[in-house]
Design brief:
The complex is a heterodimer of chains A (about 80) and B (about 375). Chain A is of the alpha+beta class. Chain A has three helices and four strands; from the N terminus they run βαβαββα. Chain B has about 375 residues and is an all-alpha fold. Classes of the chains: A alpha+beta (about 80), B mainly alpha (about 375).
């Protein structure tokens, strides 16, 4: 069961990434948990430097960008 | 208003009609193998091929059209106060918005090739003045959301980028705003754009270098250096060409959609200056002769928070009314480069002494630019 974490203080860009990641994971039929990481020390602890970021099971997959749902689907496909 | 003028919105229907027309021509032509493929091409940014020439055509027709509207529809004399202001507003609003859309499109496209992580790794390997220079240059083009200024700062310092180079980067990023740079190029020509870039990079370089020499590491908040942090490599996600184009179009939608009210306010202020402020008054307050005008415009500029595109029409009107170039540039740099919200964000990692030094150095740099250009031009 993959844990998808969206890192960012909560501006519109982070929300957009969260929505797209959600759509991509749903499309793949994953049994997943989506968590929003919003405090600075927690974001830094994951090694993330630019937000918004997507971390899947502790691995940083996306940093500082908002990929399309298709691209996110590709990134999430290997994590089943 | 934006919907009428922004090329992205205006011509979006063209490719869709084209795509449908290509596969519905009365059954005479063979059905395409995969009609969705062609459609996706147009939808993903192929329509730009048609929209860009139209952009140039419309852009060149703006001035006669604005004058026509002012004289024939509003029945105003463009040489009168009100007529001048109205003509300025009607011409500048679509012009600035269209220019912004084009600039953001190009800049966002280029920025898909650069990431803060890559910049950080390049800077971590260099020490000394070259590191500062490189940081100042990379600061212009590296994309980062202002809400990630703090993680970015920590990330830089923790992988071993010298504090001085980190400051060069942080000064250069807002000071030489990439959108402002190309808007200046479009509105005022390459000379002013060049002056802007050169002086901004010089200030970033020098201020970072000075701050590096001052050994300010002890003025960082202690948690910055104590917190666990494992630097991650740049992401493994690769973009195709069409992804980059799509990201660029998305960038235009987001940015133009967000900043157009600021721009209209800026243009309204510019229009007022253009129509009503007498040249003699402007010469007295912002001309070369008034030595105090440079610090005054910096003081006025700092609390004003606007984006690069919003301040352009004001600078344009100021210059048109005879304000000195150095004074106008100092005002613009203070508005864009020294912003209170960003300073408040940085306060989380920097102790007050370092914040004060940071602001002091940047403000001094802007003052020097202002006086320098008033003196030599």
């Amino acid at each position: 069961m993959p844990v998808i974490e969206i890192c960012g203080p909560g501006c519109t860009r982070c929300k957009m990434l969260a929505e797209r990641a959600d759509a991509a994971a749903k499309g793949l039929g994953l049994d997943y948990t989506l968590v929003k990481v919003t405090t600075m020390p927690e974001i830094m602890a994951r090694g993330v430097m630019s937000t918004p970021a997507m971390v899947v099971d502790g691995v940083v997959k996306v940093q500082g960008q908002i990929p399309s749902v298709e691209a996110l689907t590709g990134l999430l496909a290997g994590t089943k | 208003m934006t919907h009428k003028t922004a090329p992205t919105e205006n011509h979006e229907t063209i490719p869709i009609q084209f795509g449908q027309g290509a596969c519905c021509c009365g059954g005479a032509c063979k059905p395409a193998r995969n009609p969705r493929a062609g459609f996706t091409f147009w939808k993903k940014g192929g329509w730009l091929i048609l929209a860009l020439p139209l952009w140039f055509l419309v852009y060149h027709l703006l001035l006669p059209f604005a004058n026509l509207l002012t004289i024939r529809v509003f029945r105003l004399d463009p040489t009168s106060h009100l007529g001048g202001a109205v003509a300025f507003f009607l011409y500048d609003s679509p012009k600035v918005l269209m220019l912004l859309a084009l600039v953001v499109l190009g800049v966002t496209f280029v920025q898909t090739f650069v990431s803060p992580e890559r910049t950080r790794d390049i800077l971590a390997r260099r020490a000394g003045a070259w590191g500062n220079l490189l940081a100042s240059l990379l600061g212009i083009i590296t994309p980062f959301c202002s809400c990630s200024a703090v993680p970015l700062f920590i990330g830089f310092v923790r992988v071993g980028v010298p504090l001085g180079a980190t400051f060069s980067f942080l000064v250069s990023a807002p000071m030489v705003n990439e959108v402002a740079l190309f808007m200046l190029l479009g509105l005022f020509g390459w000379k002013i754009a060049g002056i802007y870039a050169l002086t901004g990079v010089s200030i970033a370089f020098l201020s970072g270098w000075v701050l590096g020499k001052l050994k300010m590491e002890r003025h960082l908040e202690s948690w910055v250096l104590e917190m666990p942090f494992n630097a991650q490599a740049a992401q493994d996600y690769r973009m195709s060409f069409s992804d980059r184009v799509e990201a660029a179009v998305q960038g235009v939608r987001e940015i133009v959609g967000k900043v157009w009210p600021y721009i209209l306010v800026g243009i309204a202020v510019g229009a007022f200056i253009h129509g009503y402020v007498p040249e003699s008054l402007m010469a007295r307050f912002m001309g070369k002769g008034a030595w105090w005008s440079v610090p005054l415009s910096v003081l006025i500029g700092v609390p004003l928070y606007s984006n690069a595109a919003g301040v352009m029409p004001i600078v344009q009107a100021l210059l048109g009314k005879g304000a000195a170039l150095g004074t106008a540039l100092a005002f613009m740099m203070a508005v864009i480069g020294l912003s209170l919200p960003e300073t408040i964000i940085l306060r989380k990692v920097l102790k007050p002494t370092l914040i004060a030094v940071f602001i002091g150095v940047v403000a001094t740099g802007i003052l020097i630019v202002g006086y320098l250009f008033n003196f030599i031009l």
